[in-house]
Amino acid sequence: MREKGKINFITAMLIFSSIGIFIRALPYPSSFVAFVRGTVGFAVILLFMLVKRQKSDRKAIKENFLLLAVSGIFIGINWVALFESYRYTTVATATLCYYMAPMFVIMASPLVLGERLTLKKSVCVATALFGMVLVSGVFEAEKGEIQLKGIIYGLVAAAFYASVMLVNKKMTDIPAMDKTYLQLVFAAAVVGVYNLFTVDASTLSTDMKHIALLLLVGVFHTGFAYTLYFGAMKSMKAQSIAILSYIDPVFALILSAVILKEQMSLFGVIGAVLVLGSALVCELPERTKETV
């Protein structure tokens, strides 16, 4: 059972790592893609729960309703910012910006969660920030234009993802599936309202290839991947989850180089190692204290 859980978790990470490739191929506004992702993802997870006859914990939902709404809204904003980042910079750079989220959690935890900021964590944060500077290309005069807009969007996405992590820590005794599908509902709702005022439906592509890719992002990269992800976590140790989670950014960097031909400079590679390495070193001790 544990081995099957690991296989499902790794599969989910590989699926998550490829979403940037698909987003780059879609001609739709990021907010519209986020709306479809949330709506279709919610439907798939709800269908899975119905097939499995898995009932929602209404009491837990009621007790955590406000936090679910806030975290869902943050997820919606996070998706829009991340998808915009994919459009304005490379998938590799956007992914590395996104993986600054654990560092943002560490920086905010003393104020939000009352946790102590240790010397080790402080060094990890400083290392990751320096790595992000290297990734941005500020030390490369020959690089010319620094894709600042994409980097800013990526860091905004990371900040909102970090906010989701912090809000989730405040929730109590709510099943993972209930939390996920409700967060997707709120994410889709807030982005849907935004789309009403900003997106002209008549300009959206009706090409079947684009529609198929859009649905794939909702069904495969959201509903199916989240179902695998949360189902696998039940049978895995926290240490395994922490380590295997880094399949996502590493494989995303590989895909961006192989499929999109996005090459990173030496400074970029060093920065990537610093960002991902410091995040892993910081997270692992905290997660090993928990058991799944």
If you had to describe this structure to a student in words, what would you say it looks like?
- This protein is mainly alpha-helical and 292 residues long.
- Helix content is 77%, strand content 0%.
- Helix 1 packs across helix 13 and helix 7 crosses helix 9.
- The model is unreliable at 286-292 (pLDDT under 50).
Kindly state the percentage of residues in helix: over 70%
Q: What is the tally of helical segments?
A: 14
Provide the succession of SSEs: HHHHHHHHHHHHHH
Average pLDDT, all residues = 86
Intertermini distance: 13 Å
Structural class: mainly alpha
Percent of sequence in beta strands: under 5%
Q: What characterizes the major β-sheet?
A: none
Uncertain parts: 286-292
Kindly state the number of beta strands: 0
Shape: globular
- Computed CA radius of gyration, to the nearest angstrom: 19 Å
Topology overview:
Elements: H1 2-17, H2 19-25, H3 30-51, H4 58-63, H5 65-88, H6 91-98, H7 101-112, H8 119-136, H9 148-170, H10 176-198, H11 208-233, H12 238-244, H13 247-258, H14 266-287
Helix pairs in contact: 1-11, 1-13, 2-11, 3-5, 3-10, 3-11, 5-6, 5-9, 5-10, 6-9, 6-13, 7-8, 7-9, 8-14, 12-14
